[in-house]
Design a protein that fits this description.
With 344 residues, the protein is an alpha/beta fold. The chain has 2 domains: 147 residues, NAD(P)-binding Rossmann-like Domain (Rossmann fold); 178 residues, 2-Layer Sandwich (Dihydrodipicolinate Reductase, domain 2). The chain has 11 helices and 15 strands. The strands form 2 sheets. The chain has a 9-stranded mixed β-sheet. It has a 6-stranded parallel β-sheet with strand order 3-2-1-4-5-6, with helices on both faces. Helix 1 crosses helix 10 and helix 4 packs parallel to helix 5. The structure holds nicotinamide-adenine-dinucleotide. Nicotinamide-adenine-dinucleotide (NAD) binds next to helix 4 and helix 10.
Length: 344
């Protein structure tokens, strides 16, 4: 009986800017799970979260994983730590939720996927895209063929990382810490979205540029290409936007178009034909320009904890995150050579 079952023991490693949404997600699952250990090299950050849950504080992730007897860990770390910390956790039989990108190097990402399989534990990438209401509503419309055949898709992720890229940040602006700029950081979301909603890519070409000269990484990028279905796409990314953080998705089909923009009100509108100036706002997608992203991260965290509890399959297959990494690698290669890349 579940009443007699012991609650899951959660460890959270990395308590920086985005960790709060994960912490709230874990807190919301207190009927089945307790946060029992937290870790950050910055002990003050760890103390704040630990006090809330009565959790043990660690500044060394290895000690947490060796000593704290946790069932699952949530890793919210600089990109270069995703591989070593996730590997250490998986080797010890922990269920792992890992922030995006899966890893910097696709081979290391695949090694994590294989290790999780070998150990028989749940492993997922915290790809909040899968939990954004506008996108789950778009998925329903697409599955119902409500836009007809899709022939073109356009996306945008626009926000500002200028302060972090300007400062001597420990990882974001440094290639060794981040693995790259806006392509490594934001494009995982978009490639996940494309594969989830539209299938695999056939080809791409990428261009990038850099406004923040003191950083080591690109902060603006465009990727164009074609899906195996024939659908063409334009993907735009900027980390220097002087506007609130937003994501856009425009889907053009033979019987309609769906335009999503998280800072527009209403944020998601379905258009049917050239005379449909009003369009139909999607009632299920609230105008919430401040919390839409935070909420999706919170939901993904809850979903993973629930999945571990139920013994189910996490919504985000890390293989799809790995696929995204291969596309990012192709985009960097294209930008470097100036050539389009055929995806095999
Ligand atoms: N899903 C999303 O929309 C989304 C949004 C923002 C960030 N992220 C991802 O979340 C991760 C973290 O991003 P962030 O913006 O919170 O970064 P951050 O730099 O604010 O936080 C990272 C934290 O890790 C800690 N840390 C560094 N080395 C450590 C170590 N060896 N052991 C323990 N802790 C260590 C740092 O002290 C810091 O508190 C990244 O992978 C990023 O791409 C995802």
């Amino acid at each position: 009986m579940t009443m007699d079952r012991e609650k899951l023991r959660i460890g959270i490693i990395g308590l920086g800017i985005i960790a709060d949404a994960h912490v709230e997600g874990a807190a919301a699952m207190s009927d089945i799970a307790n946060v029992v250990a937290v870790c950050d090299i910055d002990e003050a950050k760890a103390n704040v979260v630990a006090q809330r849950f009565g959790a043990a504080v660690y500044t060394d992730y290895k000690r947490l994983l060796d000593e704290a007897d946790v069932d699952l860990v949530d890793l919210i770390l600089p990109h270069n730590l995703h591989y070593p910390v996730a590997l250490y956790a998986l080797e010890r039989g922990k269920h792992v939720l890992l922030e995006k990108p899966l890893t910097i190097d696709p081979d290391e990402g695949m090694a994590l996927i294989e290790k999780a399989r070998e150990m028989g534990v749940k492993f997922s990438v915290a790809e909040n895209t899968r939990f954004v209401t506008a996108y789950t509503e778009a998925e329903k419309l697409l599955r119902a063929h409500a836009l007809g055949d899709i022939y073109q898709v356009r996306t945008l992720i626009a926000g500002s990382e200028v302060e972090r890229l300007k400062n001597p940040h420990p990882w974001k602006a440094k290639k060794i810490g981040s693995g790259g700029g806006v392509l490594m950081d934001a494009a995982p979301h978009t490639f996940y979205l494309l594969k989830w909603l539209f299938g695999e890519l056939a080809s791409l070409q990428a261009f990038h540029s850099q406004l923040v000269s003191v950083s080591e990484v690109e902060d603006n990028a465009i990727v164009i290409g074609r899906m195996t279905s024939g659908t063409t796409f334009t993907l735009q990314f900027t980390f220097t936007a002087e506007s609130p953080w937003t994501e856009r998705l425009e889907i053009y089909g033979t019987t309609g178009a769906l335009i999503i923009d998280q800072i527009a009100n209403p944020p998601a509108i379905l258009y049917r034909g050239t005379e449909d100036f009003q369009g139909t706002p999607l009632a299920a997608v609230p105008y919430d320009p401040v919390h839409w992203k935070y909420n999706s991260i919170l939901e993904e965290t809850k979903d993973f904890i629930q999945t571990v509890w139920d013994g189910g399959v996490p919504k985000v297959d890390p293989a799809d995150a790995h696929y995204g990494l291969l596309m990012i690698e192709a985009a960097y290669e294209s930008a470097r050579t100036g050539q389009p890349i055929a995806i095999e």
